[in-house]
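Section handout 9: paired folding examples.
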Amino acid sequence: MKPNRWIVPVAGTALVGLAASFAARSSLDAEEKKPPADRDNPFAGKVVVVLEKGDVGTTGLAALENPAFLEIKGQRFLTGKRVGKPESAWNGVKAYLAFDNVASIYEFDNVEAFREFEEKVTEETEAAGRLFEDMILPNPAIPRVLPQADE
């Protein structure tokens, strides 16, 4: 029996073609998949509100967009761009908060969700302030400090 000398080149070409199609499919699948969440940074792509430790007079509050952890000379920091009211001068300023000084972190999916929350808190605070004014200033002749709710 005479061996067929074309079997090796045909089989080799088929294997190369199969490997090429597998590689092309793998690269397309890789483009479609989102990268896995960063295990070192659970807040990637989010907005966080950070409350710093301290007494009432020095307690700070910061909202950071795209927060990340950074280590400088052995100390961990939570960094990100400040987010606040649109007219705030602090918007977009990069902040570095010492992680040892963080008391609480509140997470939001995006800037819009944070701004909606901020509006609700402002409304609730003003309503509580008006209620307090009504308790201590029952006389309508006394001028009010807070804006009155539309009735």
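Moving on to protein 2 of 2.
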Amino acid sequence: MRDNISSYQKSSINDTNIFKKKKAMKTTQVLRHVFAALFILASLFLCQPILAQQGGYALKFSPAWPWSGSPYVQTTYGGAIKTLEFWFRTNSFNPSYGICGQRYDDAEEQGNWQMHWQNVDPYKKLRIYAYNPAGFEFVTSSTFDPGKWYHVAVTSSGSAMQYYVNGVLEKTLSTTFIMGASPNDDNLVFGGSFGNSTLYPNDGDMDEVRVWSVVRTADEIKANCTGSWPAPRPIWWPITR
């Protein structure tokens, strides 16, 4: 199974199996997780950049879980996100299918947001719906193709939000909104999103989900997309499933 990874379109493998799935794991998978955890601890000790995921393959999500794919992943990270990056590919542009977000309850509060597919034609654009404290949307200019890997980054500085697709800045929105900022108290969810406690599942794959508490520059985001990883390292969170 080919993966996107930092060495995109190359043959090396470096993916997401450290995120637990609700499936019985083979011994080889358990060992892979143990080595991944040791790698992360060593990286923390040495103050080196850390991948949010190591070992295995990109996570495959499906609205048909548990018969196929995986359910969403709820991380233990809750708080302001000033840069979010991930690789993904999709099988469907159903606007009721989500990508990620921080809105896990019924409260429509400032700092809530969720990313899903645009709910009007042409449907093939990513849309963030957020509260600041009134609802607003931020939609990509780019359209996406099914079955193709893309690198997406979103920044929220408190004065503007920006979309990057495959390392290129493509849209800016003036707003004071910061993803996940107080009083939002919801943890980051990916491989799906929530709105008013309703799950919007994902139909596709995700890999290398990265979060920073600072706004990454255009050059840093481009470097991440093309393979290198400038400091500082992203926030890393353990997964509770």
